[in-house]
Amino acid sequence: PSVTMNLDEKDRRIISMFAEEPGVSQETVARELGISQPSVAVRIRKLRELGALESLNGINPLRMGLYLAKVDISSNRPAEILDMFKDCPYFAHGFTISGRNNLCLFFASENISTLEAIVNGHIRSNQWVTAVDFNIVIASERPFILPTRLVMQKVDGSPCGHPIGCRNCKAFKDMKCMGCPATGQYQGHFFVTVE
Question: Taking a C-beta distance cutoff of 8 angstroms, is the pair 193, 186 a contact?
Fold first, then answer.
């Protein structure tokens, strides 16, 4: 649910300062705005509670040498597609959108062939998908931060529900897919799986 926010000029300046420098101190904000540090603390708490000021920690996949895929999908069951990928280690983000395609998904991986295997093996072949547009992101104008667990507990079964498992998949056997770190069937170096 959306909330109408009544932001004053000081709130807008605080948001802008954090956008420019996420680690800016409350003392610096107070000096810049000409108000006390406790007043800044109250404003920051209020902005965070409203969702007007969020912090996100993670990795910048493009700076770390990962490939980022943007996959636009037409699906007659978009919620099920999003749910399928919610625990996938390669899944970066997903959006329900308007237009010809109704989903926009982002995936990150060490190589393009793993991204192709995800798209071909899990999306194009899905009965609920009617069209797919697969693109690799070349550059980003602003940092794209991906909250990523690099160490994960091994799970039984594939998080996406794929029935055959990586070891029985042709793309995995042909080294065209790194496999799933969550299942321990992983041939890459980026993620670590623990028992």
Answer: yes
DSSP conformational letter for 18? H
What is the longest distance spanned by two Cα atoms in the chain? 64
Predicted structure pTM score: 0.84
Q: At residue 107, what are phi and psi to the nearest 5 degrees?
A: -130, 150
Q: Which residues pair with 191 in a beta bridge?
A: none
CB 146 within 8 A of CB 185: no
Whether the Cβ atoms of residue 36 and residue 30 lie closer than 8 Å to each other: yes
Tell me how far CA of residue 159 lies from CA of 87, 170, 173, in angstroms. Answer: 6, 19, 20
Q: Where are the alpha helices (DSSP H) in 34-75?
A: 37-50
- Helices 26-33 and 9-20 pack at an angle, to 10 degrees, of 140
CB within 8 Å of 49: residues ≥ 6 apart: none
Measure the CA–CA gap between 106 and 126, rounded to whole angstroms. 17
**Nearest to 112, CA basis, from 176, 167, 59:** 176
- What pLDDT digit, counting tens, does each position of 43-95 carry? 999 999 988 999 888 999 999 999 999 999 999 999 999 999 998 999 999 99
Structure tokens at 145: 């931060």
Asked whether 56 and 145 are in contact (CB, 8 A), the reply is yes
